[in-house]
Structures are given as C-alpha cells and as structure tokens.
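User: Can you help me understand a structure? I only have the sequence.
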Amino acid sequence: MMYTLAACAEMLYRDRPIQERARRIHELGFQVEIWDWSRHDLAALARTGAVFSSMTGYIRGSLTNEDGAAELLTFTLENLNTAVDHPGVPFARAADTLALVAAVNRPGLRMNLDLYHAQIGEGNLIALLRRAHDLDLIGEIQVADVPGHCEPGTGEINYPAIARALTDLGYDGTVAMEAWAAEDSDLALERFRTDFTPVTFSTATHGGFS
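Assistant: Let's start by predicting it. Here is the structure, written out as tokens:
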C-alpha cells in the first residue's frame, strides 16, 4: 500500500475531547485530520503524538494575488456537492474544481478530491481519479460512502475497486476518511482500513475481483 491512511477526528469519537479523539486515531495507526485549526489547542493536539495530515481554515493569504498566495502554505481546494450537503456553493462538480486548479496553475495549489461529494455530484469516480492523477493535481483524497456520509462499506461506492485503481496508478498521497461512524468509531476505522488494504483485492474476499 503506497498511500497513507488518515481519519477526521471531528467526525469520530464525538463523545470525547478532540485531543482524545486524535490520540485514539493515532493509536490505531492512522494519521489525523481536523477542521478549523484556529479553534483548537494545538499544543495539546501535538502532545497526542499524532501526525496531522490536514487541517482546514486559514487566517491570512489569498489565491487571487501574488502577495496573498505567498502567505499560504500548500492549499487544497475541495469539491463539495450542492444536492445534499452544501447548497449554493460553487464548483459542485469535481471536474469543475479540477479545471479551476489546473487553470490557476500554482505549485502550492492542489485538489482535495472528495469522492463522497463527487459521487453525488457526477459519479464516474475511477475515471475522475485517473484524470486528476495524470494531471498531477491531487493533494489529498477524501472518502465516505453514499448515502449517509458514513464510512466506506456502508453505501453504494465500491471502495475496494477505488483502492485497486489508486494502487494501479501508483498514488502515494493521503487517503482520508472524512465520515461519520455508522455504528461505532472503532468499527468505522476497521472498515476503512479493510477496504483500503490490498488483501481485500483477493478473489476470496471479493469474488468478482482477481
């Protein structure tokens, strides 16, 4: 497995403080993601020992001018669906978001390709992955299942096939589960790991695969 697995602490173990969530995700062998970093005690999060692969929110900088762009660290732009979760946002289709990132053409700008939102917005996920990978514009891939925004294996997306495609492409970035736990957070992470571990490609596990 060339890629790294991460999980969003904002959506798992929600009965615990954020640093305890991060510590548990780290203990289970995943990197950790959070949302708006300015809302959290970063020193407390650092003491968990976790590696943080992503955090959203910025307080300075802009992609619309040279000086502003210089203030940003590497920035990933995420596609968001309008039909279910984010009505009114621009770039509901992943293909449009990818086109914008390509047009801006800055080394510090990549796409956060969210396959949950892409499935709702347009589908055809493996072709979308291949196109984004061929353009070298993927900063991160986020996953959750449809419907429900819960972990892989709870809905209609064939995530073992997605994992096989990523392996075939040689993708070596981050695959992050940004999903609610359908039942319990430990089980959600177990399902995520199973669907993105190469052993799941065997015919014994998935009879249609070879």
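Now, to help you interpret it: Residues 6-57 form one domain. The longest strand covers residues 31-36. Let me know which part you'd like to focus on.
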